[in-house]
Design goal:
Blueprint (H helix, E strand, L loop, with lengths): L2 E3 L11 H4 L3 E9 L2 E10 L1 H5 L2 H11 L8 H5 L3 H4 L2 E2 L5 E5 L5 E8 L7 E10 L2 E11 L4 E2 L5 E2 L3 E9 L14 E9 L7 E2 L2 H5 L3 E9 L7 E2 L7 E4 L9 E3 L16 H7 L16 H12 L10 E7 L4 E6 L1 E3 L3 E4 L5 E7 L10 H13 L6 H4 L8 E6 L2 E7 L2 H12 L2 H19 E2 L4 E2 L3 H13 L11 E8 L5 E12 L2 E8 L2
Parallel strand pairs: 1-21, 12-17, 22-23
Antiparallel strand pairs: 2-3, 3-5, 4-6, 5-6, 6-7, 7-8, 8-11, 9-10, 11-15, 12-13, 12-14, 14-16, 18-19, 18-22, 20-21, 23-24, 24-27, 25-26, 27-28, 28-29
Helix pairs in contact: 12-13
Length: about 500
């Protein structure tokens, strides 16, 4: 059984840096009044940044140690003893290069004690071969929002505080006799209906603009903005585009004190069961719960089931309701989910002569849904916090199962190479089908077992590699619907697996 998906051309300006850690570049010239600001913006993982001699040398001066990319984890924590903070793993290093060759590296840092609505960045500056560094501490008006493109949007920064770090006698703000600096934080009015910090789409669409402040040193020994309680002074406006300009790219923390908490897979699956108010979905369209239950009723009814049925799961950003559209039959028993811009998932049933559990094609379909996630949507829709996460459901006589993504990075990094290479894809298919066949297929009677527990155990072993069986740790979650005697869904439970001695045990946790 295969699911064929309509292909969309991915918007070339999307730069999925936060979770995928691909390098991306924006080379822009920005004009603010009479001020012309040129810079090159890149994002790299810490491992990639350590491969850059300019960053490696600067970072080594700060930490008093030399590191290679192979020791990036040690490098990440090297600042703990000296300064009481550590670099946050898996968050890209932002790299700004100015025409005069000055380079700013911005890294998200964290301390043991978290402060509500506050986060800190380490900025390292390399100018004329000299290295300086400072801690930038920001206070937000409200928690940051995560977008579909894995950017983080800050509505408003209320306060910025700066702390110089001594790097071989060089200070970030106090070096060279300078007393005042222009600082630029990039803003954008795009997509949310209010001004916010710029993210990748803003830069790509040329909708980003700088908000300039003049930060001057005061008697208190360090600059701050905008509350000059320590003797420092900040004046908004001005800006001369001088070589001393500081370009800030605030990177908010990823903990709940800074960002809205991600919804759990249980939260997402429970939303599938919500019945939309009358009149909010098109006439003739089924709600998601009804579509899933209809699939289940059909596959568990008496008679032969030799043709798969299914539905595309859609989200309407205007009504903020989910709805469905019937899948198309292709090539005999296959179903095809239409790739509408608003498709976030699919549901289908397996006919009688197929494996009664999620297959390699079902996993591949979830990958395609993940790849297309957000493609073709308006900016308002992309930033809709209610927009459902990708999900793929399969129904058989064994029950209703849902496959979700729990770790986007692990999921993408594990499966993208497999589904991009025919040989790897065939090997992937052979492994999962071989595990099913070896344990559940009786070749003498040509009959598949109906042992529900064994099916679940095999799939969980395959997608977690718990037994080191040359399987795959995919970063996905497996859920099963709870149903009443009438076949109606009443809730969900998550299935996980553990190994005790030489036995595997499936554990079930109810979604509350």
């Amino acid at each position: 059984m295969k699911h064929l998906l309509k292909k969309f051309v991915l918007l070339s300006y999307f730069c999925l840096a936060t979770f995928l850690y691909y390098s991306c570049t924006q080379e822009k010239e920005y004009i603010n009044g009479q001020n012309r600001i040129n810079f090159d913006l890149k994002e790299k993982s810490l491992k990639e940044a350590l491969d850059m001699p300019i960053f490696n040398n600067a970072y080594s001066k700060l930490t008093k140690k030399k590191f290679s990319s192979s020791s990036s984890e040690t490098a990440r924590t090297a600042l703990e003893d000296q300064f009481g903070f550590t670099i946050v793993p898996d968050v890209p290093v932002k790299i700004i290069t100015k025409p005069d060759g000055t380079v700013f590296f911005t890294l998200l840092i964290e301390r043991e004690v978290k402060e509500e609505l506050k986060f800190e960045n380490l900025m390292i500056q390399v100018k004329n071969t000299e290295t300086s560094a400072a801690i930038f501490k920001y206070t937000m008006e409200e928690k940051a929002i995560k977008t579909m493109t894995n950017d983080y949007i800050i509505k408003e920064i209320l306060n910025s505080q700066y702390t110089d770090l001594n790097v071989d006698g060089k200070m970030f703000f106090n070096s060279g006799g300078e007393t005042c600096f222009d600082t630029y934080i990039w803003k954008c009015d795009y997509g949310l209906g209010y001004t916010h910090t710029a993210y990748s789409t803003c830069f790509s669409d040329n909708t980003a603009y700088p908000v300039i402040s003049v930060v001057c040193m005061g008697d208190g020994g360090g600059p701050t903005s905008p509350d000059p309680t320590n003797g420092s002074v900040t004046v908004t406006g001005g800006g001369g585009g001088s070589p001393n300009d500081i370009i800030e790219t605030p990177t908010p923390c990823r903990s709940v004190n800074c960002i809205e908490a991600d919804k759990t897979p249980c939260d997402e699956l429970k939303k599938l069961l919500i019945i939309p108010p009358a009149g909010t979905i098109p006439l003739g369209s089924k709600n998601v719960k009804q579509a899933i239950e209809d699939n289940y009723a059909e596959v568990t009814s008496p008679g032969d089931h030799d043709q798969e049925e299914g539905y595309s799961l859609l989200y309407n950003c205007s009504t903020k309701q989910m709805q469905t559209a019937p899948a198309i039959h292709v090539d005999g028993n296959k179903v095809k989910y239409y790739r509408y811009p608003y498709t976030f998932g699919g549901t289908h049933f397996h006919q009688d002569d197929l494996i009664q559990m999620l297959s390699h094609d079902d996993i591949g379909t979830l990958l395609q849904l993940h790849r297309d996630f957000g493609t073709g949507l308006s900016e308002d829709c992309k930033n809709d916090s209610n927009y459902p996460k990708p999900v793929h459901l399969m129904t058989s006589a064994l029950g209703i199962y849902a496959l979700t993504i729990e770790n986007e990075t692990l999921f993408s990094n594990t499966l993208t190479p497999i589904y991009s290479n025919n040989e790897l894809k065939e090997d992937f298919k052979d492994k999962i089908e071989g595990m099913y066949s070896f344990n559940l297929y009786n070749s003498s009677t040509n009959v598949w077992s109906d042992d529900v527990y064994e099916y679940e155990k095999i799939l969980l072993r395959f997608i977690t590699n718990i037994g080191n069986e040359d399987c795959y740790n995919m970063g996905v979650g497996l859920f099963k619907a709870e149903t009443g005697n009438d076949g109606k869904i009443t809730g969900w439970e998550q299935l996980t697996i553990k190994k005790v001695n030489n036995s595997y045990i499936v554990e079930r946790t109810k979604c509350l």
